[in-house]
Write a structure and sequence with these properties.
The structure is a single chain. By secondary structure, the chain is mainly beta. Helices cover 14% and strands 54% of the residues. Strand 1 and strand 2 form a beta hairpin. The longest helix has 32 residues. The chain is elongated. It starts with a helix and ends with a strand.
Length: 257
Amino acid sequence: MNLVKLLAVLSLFFVSDLIAQKQSDAVVQQSVRKGVIYKNENSFDIAIHSNGLYLGYNIGKIKFYYLTKYIHFDIGMLKHPKEKRISQIYNQNNSLSRYTFGKQNLLINIRAGRGLIRYYSEKTKRKGVAVGLRMEGGLTVGLLKPYYLDVLSEHDGKVKTVAIKYSPETAADFLDPNHILGESSFWKGVNEIKFKPGAFGRIALTLDPGAFEKYVQALNVGLQADIYAQRVPILVTDNNPFLLMNFFINLQFGRRK
């Protein structure tokens, strides 16, 4: 009889503890899903796209468990879709020549804007992937830096190496592969940067295994558009557009608090 009573008491404690644990898990899961714990989100972007790359930073506010609004900043390189990279052996000194043929300017974009992430699927507390939509847009400042080439140029019967950028006067050497030794230092022409204002927009599918947890670990795949007030002279030999479209893949990581 005493043994039966002991087993009954132990069973009661076991059932009570199990119920309490389930209730605790439900509260935690509910709080995680409804955004009670996390209100802010800071994250970094590392992205590559079909014609360049960018690095970004986001400062976000979690409005609801399924909705985050944020301010976005990034800096990146943007190439013309018809750029052609050349690698060749220069016969006179048997050296390898690397450059982009017909490239007039290097385009660096600094972007600032706003965005939102809307999740359309939930995940369990410990497993699963949340699927959502990420959208952002804002203003762009395009920095145009002249693209310099090291070429062999003849003056007064003497051949020497000079760094030149494209102009009507240098076109003969700039566009002649037989004269080109390779591209000059990246820093050449930094003091000649010109500004091109514009705007940008992105839309992406978001896959986030940690959407309702402390750490941001998301993959974004989507479409990016950069549009400028004037044509951006990137290439000499092609009609440069106002609008540049790119597919991109973005790895986003950060922290919520």
